[in-house]
Amino acid sequence: MSLGPVMIDIEGTALTAEDRELLCHPRVGGLILFSRNYTSLEQLQALMAEVHALRSPRLLVAVDHEGGRVQRFREGFTRLPAVARLGEVYDLNPRRALHLADLAGWLMAAELRAVGVDFSFAPVLDLGRGVSTVIGDRAFHSTPQGVARLAQAYVTGMQRAGMAATGKHFPGHGAVAADSHLALPIDDRSLDEIAAQDLYPFRVLITHGLVGIMPAHVVYPRIDSAPAGFSRFWLQDVLRTRLGFQGVIFSDDLSMAGAEGVGGYRARARAALEAGCDMVLVCNRRGAVAEVLHAVEGYDQPLTHLRLVRMHGREGTSPALLRRDNAWRTAVAELTHALDDPGLSLDL
Which of 164, 194, 217, 298 is deepest in the core (most CB within 10 A)? Predict the structure, then answer.
């Protein structure tokens, strides 16, 4: 059985009979986890063992685990800094900041791989313009060059731990104040301005082999009337053709307000896949999953199957063995020492 083009969630900390049935559906290919799915390392390991045993090839398991405000698993995991703190160090000592970004990417990925999670939807490649509160300190830096250099170091660390990276939110969410979870943001800038600024980090990381990208639920009306994740122009003409991206395109959550203007869930799923997404996410709307699965009936793209398999994480160690590894101890100590400074307001 190949991996289907739909990623769904579950409600609790263990699988129900309904969860198992849906996760075995041939048009489902992945599971995204949230804080509600986690109570302890042992519980998560047991859940992952059950999920991995359901199918072959096994389902992709993902989570949003960037650090700072967006870290789904807390107790038993290292409290990771918001990546903007790395940007603050970068302004003082770029070489030191790049080293710390590499450590942070490795630590995040190594801890998730140790419990069987394939990948985190990271890193954020948006520019920290001070406009978007939903992006805020999730952005590495305010400049395209700073974001690109820090994110590339972070991705290098992820790759060393056996995790593929997913850059978001293409082509850039940092210049709009509205939160696409709650509204449809409108970015009135020109293509030339976006290409010179926001696309720069994506261009650099694609050149270095970025495996996944998630587009934004943002409309750029001077360029296309559809939100980027439903736009053939953004996903085919710009991302695939101009930037040469050959990896996986994940839709952002179809349940977000920024996707509502496309239509109902069936229309959203079809529009995202027709625009060029390889996998669509349906989160926190179990009732919508059946609609989406019906909408993607007959969808079969061999190239998509090959792309998705690349998102599987390399085999990791156990949490106990990881914490006895000198590399883990060094990473935690070095990040804490370098970043736990009153002037940086970190909670590590």
Answer: 217
